[in-house]
Amino acid sequence: MTSLHTARRRLSQDLEIAVRQNAWVRQFSAAITVCDSRGILVAMNDRAAASFRAQSGKRLIGSNVMDCHPEAMRRKLQTLLENQQTNVYTTEKGGKKQLIYQSPWYHNGEFGGLIEIVLDLPAEMPHFVRD
């Protein structure tokens, strides 16, 4: 096993421990998933696991996020990983609106991968301009 592989494995284990130990992350009302710089899913909170229940929930940890997305999203995720970019958008399905926030995360200054936060949005929401 290479030292890079060992380091990635240890980081993945550290992230999963952090999610388990931090009840606020584990029980946060938004779905949080974390992948490494290769797109391997390394952690998810309870809400994310519930949203992926039909696809095995937390058993997805260790799989590649590219495998569960259509081609257009795979290309977008690959671009985000390669360029360490943020992607933010909203979706609506079955009358349910969500905010999707995908952003790079770093460990000791090194690019670690992407974190995705999915927040349910109310049908109507105030917007404040604060100049």
Keywords, separated by commas or semicolons:
about 130 residues, alpha+beta, 5-stranded antiparallel sheet, 4 helices, 5 strands
Broad structural category? alpha+beta
Tally of alpha and pi helices: 4
Q: Tell me the total number of β-strands.
A: 5
Give me the strand/helix succession: HHEEHHEEE
Radius of gyration: 16 Å
Largest sheet: 5 strands, antiparallel
Ranges where pLDDT stays below 50 over 5 or more residues in a row are none
Please provide a written account of the structure:
The chain has 131 residues and is an alpha+beta fold. The chain has helices spanning 3-21, 23-26, 46-51, 71-83, and strands at residues 31-36, 41-44, 87-93, 96-107, 110-121. A five-stranded antiparallel sheet has the order 2-1-5-4-3. The longest helix is centred in the N-terminal third of the chain and has 19 residues, at 3-21. The mean pLDDT is 86.
Short précis:
By secondary structure, this protein is of the alpha+beta class. Helices cover 32% and strands 31% of the residues.
Write the layout of secondary structure elements.
Elements lengths: L2 H19 L1 H4 L4 E6 L4 E4 L1 H6 L19 H13 L3 E7 L2 E12 L2 E12 L10
